[in-house]
Design goal:
Chain lengths: 646, 243
């Protein structure tokens, strides 16, 4: 690698190197500051130019100008300005491209986290911090509408504000927190775990991160759109999303940017995992987190284009007067739901499988035992991947689709509980007779297992068609999704953040505050979401700004608990920030884990491994005398190891 | 596994099951069941709840027992026994859930089929939903229209649902049955009310700004009272049309 770089015939970087030109024309925030409005102007010119050429009235149609210039070309200008396309543009224009000198690797100061950076470890941290920002924004919105819901009757929100808040809350949590937070953790960990120096496509990796803030800001700022934010729920069912406020376009396009980011990252993971494993790292020696992200990435690549399509159809119906979902002109209203759920049910597993992977890592390490039934754990991920594509219509049992479709969809939905159950039982069997250390990551992982079981059981109830007919679109569903997405995904995200905090920051977090954070969240979470099961079954529909007074008491309890839950995250923020700044320096392997990321320093060297590791065994051989996952000191040792093993 | 461990785990499981059962019994979960369909749905509900309590108790017991029994001090550097799996146990915990979910699927399919059966003497009502109101037409009685839904105790009604603008959804919690009204598609919902009284129809599909308030009154009447009311409405609307 280095030799190629030294002998490259190309000229040095074609970047202006002196004076003001360096600042204005070089990649960065200043260039982004003028390229964004420039690209907005280009988009505006295209719209206005085409409309005046075609004699469309009015020429200045602001809905279309905002859609094209504001939501499509201006973000492209921002990405170009900040430098996401520099290499490809040089290449396409025939300029000498900068040979990969790895100058984009590593972070020397906090400022490097605000630049295009091709280092998977920097990108991983960028992802996690960005997603936590949007998590807090979404959480604050939840507390605003819980305040409104504390009492029956309308308090301080109007219906549009309420519908907007619940929709933006859910969209941020799903598209800007759970999905990318897992992508961020995996971004940091996966190359290290498989013994690779980086992801397969580092520039693509950087680009896929920078699409995220665009998507998030788009969804957030729809609150400021005249008429109000998108208010058709995160599911955005047509035709309400077509005839609702213009804020819906901001959702349609926000999903495109977030979805593009997901797809690029997933492709990157797939190529990285397939082609860049260290010698000896066979598929059956991969840590389960790698398996989990492998299956998740397949889901993302296959399913995400469907949600992109559904949102484009809705947007075209609005701005181009197509009739995909306009039944007066032959549109097919239920078509939206089929396309949407063909993505969004697999998306549930996109939001869960990486968490399964994290739980497997943490539970094995902190039980000091091998994962029970490693192969079945990997195969059950594959089973969920396949079955996950055959269950989408269980969201539509009362939708009016062909009624014969209900029973087969119920059967596949209930069957998917089997591989999920296998995973839960395997985790429990892993803890059995282990040497359990209840450190913070383990608390979150065990909290995840117990809460996810409740969410899984309510999922079985919803999978049974007769029960679903009663509970569909009630608070029972709200309780269910929060048990799987908060008790499931969020708990594993925190397990992962605490587990890899020393590796990512090079410092230890405060153990006592970590435990306080867990217990406050655990209690607040159950007090907030368990009662929702009850009021749902009793008859309170979801997505209502006002409700029957008989549900007043429970709603007051839920609202107070939700503030308690909100406060628990302040403990996390305090712990994370102070530990990152001043925490004790972390050892390379504080958890005595076997996987590869713990065999290098904390934080890892810029190129991860000074010497390519040779994988010689499984990743969870705790308690096996003399077992090793990998060796670093050369081929001889490998030969010896292989001679020793039968 | 030693016998002592099994006894303790079973004890914790029974305690957890008892606690969960208490939550299931002492909190009023389901509203009154005032239709034949509701009785079948509730049967499925309680069977599945029983299975869920069983699964929950097993998981809770093993989690609690493991954490209490196998927890070690932070400075304990020893490892657990290197058990990699056990094919027999793995087959068992694949097979048992498969059997349980098959049971649930069969029971559900039967209940669903029975709830979809149409009687020949049924009442027909055309339901129209639009932002943010319901209206009802009685084609068997000359097609008069009302804004409250009147049904007959003990007689099946087949609702035919239409939506004029966006998707709405028909739900009376005491009847359990729910069905979306979809623009451009005609959907149906059979209900057999079993008790005279007043109920509230709730829209359960987010349909815009007035969604929370899109409700209508539902009155279930005895057959004679209903007949009298329906004839009266029919006459009135006929007079209105001619006059």
């Amino acid at each position: 690698m280095t030799e190629v770089a030294e002998h490259t015939p190309h000229a040095p970087p074609a970047e202006p190197s002196t004076g003001w030109r360096h600042y204005v024309l070089g990649p960065g925030w200043i260039r982004a500051a003028w390229m964004t409005p420039l690209f907005f102007a280009i988009g505006l010119g295209i719209v206005v130019g085409l409309r005046s050429l075609g004699h469309y009235e009015p020429v200045w149609d602001w809905l279309i100008i905002v859609t094209v210039a504001g939501l499509i070309t201006a973000p492209i200008g921002f990405l170009a300005g900040i430098g996401a396309f520099d290499y490809w543009v040089y290449y396409a224009l025939g300029y000498p491209t900068r040979p990969e000198d790895h100058s984009g690797h590593g972070a020397r100061s906090w400022k490097d986290y605000f630049r295009i950076n091709t280092d998977h470890k920097v990108i991983g941290v960028q992802y996690v911090v960005t997603t936590i920002f949007f998590f807090l924004a979404g959480g604050l919105m939840a507390m605003i509408f819980r305040a409104e819901l504390a009492k029956p009757g309308m308090q301080f929100l109007d219906n549009q504000e309420y519908n907007g808040l619940i929709s933006v809350h859910a969209s941020l949590m799903i598209f800007l927190f759970v999905i990318p937070a897992f992508a961020g953790l995996a971004n940091f960990v996966i190359p290290l775990m498989i013994g690779a120096p980086d992801m397969a496509f580092p520039r693509l990796n950087a680009l896929s991160f920078w699409l995220l803030p665009i998507a998030g800001i788009m969804m957030l700022s729809s609150v400021a759109v005249p008429g109000g934010a998108f208010g058709a729920g995160w599911t955005g069912y047509a035709p309400l999303s077509v005839v609702g406020t213009d804020g819906n376009v901001w959702f349609n396009m926000g999903v495109q940017w977030a979805g593009a980011s997901s797809i690029m990252t997933a492709l990157n993971f797939l190529v990285t995992i397939i082609t860049m494993r260290a010698p000896g790292m066979t598929f059956w020696r991969m840590p389960l987190l790698v398996w989990a992200n492998f299956t998740t990435s397949l889901l993302v690549v296959l399913a995400t284009p469907f949600v992109a399509g559904s949102q484009f159809f809705v947007m075209f119906d609005r701005i181009m007067h197509t009739n995909f979902f306009n039944y007066h002109e032959g549109g097919y209203v239920l078509g939206y739901q089929h396309i949407f759920w063909f993505y969004s049910h697999p998306a549930v597993y996109i939001m869960m499988l990486p968490g399964f992977g994290i739980a497997s890592e943490v539970i094995s390490v902190f039980s000091r035992k091998p994962i029970f039934g490693y192969r079945l754990m990997a195969l059950s991920l594959c089973a969920i991947l396949v079955l996950g594509f055959s269950v989408w219509a269980h969201h539509m049992f009362v939708s009016g689709m062909a009624s014969w479709l209900r029973v087969p969809m119920m059967i596949t939905t209930l069957l998917i509980a089997v591989p999920t159950g296998i995973k839960v039982f395997s985790w429990l069997a892993t803890t059995w007779e282990g040497r359990i250390h209840l450190a913070t990551p383990m608390l979150w992982a065990l909290g995840f297992v117990s809460m996810f079981v409740i969410g899984g059981l309510s999922g079985i109830m919803l999978g049974a068609v007769p029960i679903d007919i009663h509970t569909s679109d009630t608070y029972f569903v709200v309780a269910h999704i929060h048990y799987v997405l908060l008790g499931g995904s969020l708990f594993t995200i925190f397990a992962g953040i605490y587990y890899w905090f020393p590796k990512m920051t090079g410092r230890m977090y405060n153990e006592r505050l970590g435990k306080v954070h867990f217990w406050l969240t655990f209690v607040g979470f159950n007090l907030t979401f368990f009662p929702m099961h009850i009021i749902g079954v009793q008859g309170m529909p979801r997505r209502v700004s006002d409700y029957d007074p008989q549900f007043g008491t429970w709603n007051m309890v839920i609202s107070i608990s939700s503030f308690f839950l909100g406060v628990s995250f302040v403990v996390f923020l305090y712990n994370a920030i102070t530990s990152w700044l001043r925490g004790p320096i972390a050892e390379a392997n504080p958890w005595r884990a076997m996987t590869l990321e713990w065999q290098v320093s904390s934080p890892p060297p810029v190129f991860n491994f000074d010497e390519i590791p040779q994988v010689v065994g499984g990743p969870y051989e705790y308690g096996v005398p003399g077992a090793r996952h990998a060796v670093f000191n050369g081929d001889r040792e490998v030969e010896l190891e292989e001679a020793r093993s039968p | 596994m030693r016998r002592g461990a099994i006894v303790r785990v079973v004890t914790i499981a029974l305690l957890a099951a008892a606690a969960a059962t208490a939550v299931a019994i002492f909190i009023p979960w389901l509203p009154a069941a005032d239709s034949k369909e509701a009785e079948r749905i509730d049967l499925v509900f309680w069977v599945v709840i029983a299975i869920c309590i069983g699964v929950f108790a097993v998981v809770a017991a093993i989690t609690i027992y493991s954490v209490v029994k196998f927890r070690v001090r932070p400075d304990d550097d020893s490892d657990g026994p290197p058990v990699h799996g056990h094919t027999g146990i793995e087959i068992v915990w694949t097979a048992i859930p498969t059997i349980l979910v098959t049971l649930i699927a069969v029971l559900s399919a039967v209940a669903l089929a029975e709830n979809g059966d149409l009687k020949s003497n049924r009442l027909e009502v055309d339901v129209t939903a639009q932002q943010f109101a319901w209206s009802f037409k009685y084609p068997q009685y000359g097609g008069f229209q009302t804004h409250e839904l009147r049904l007959v105790e003990g007689r099946q009604v087949r609702l035919t649902l239409r939506a004029l603008d966006v998707i709405h959804s028909f739900w009376v919690p005491e009847f359990r049955q729910k069905q979306d009204a979809v623009p451009g598609t005609v959907t149906h919902l059979p209900i057999t009310p079993t008790k005279a009284g007043k109920y509230t129809l709730i829209c359960t599909e987010l349909c815009g700004l007035g969604h929370a308030l899109m409700r209508a009154r539902v009155i279930v009447m005895t057959p004679t009272a209903f007949d009298q009311w329906a004839r009266g409405q029919q006459q009135q609307s006929a007079q209105g049309a001619s006059g």
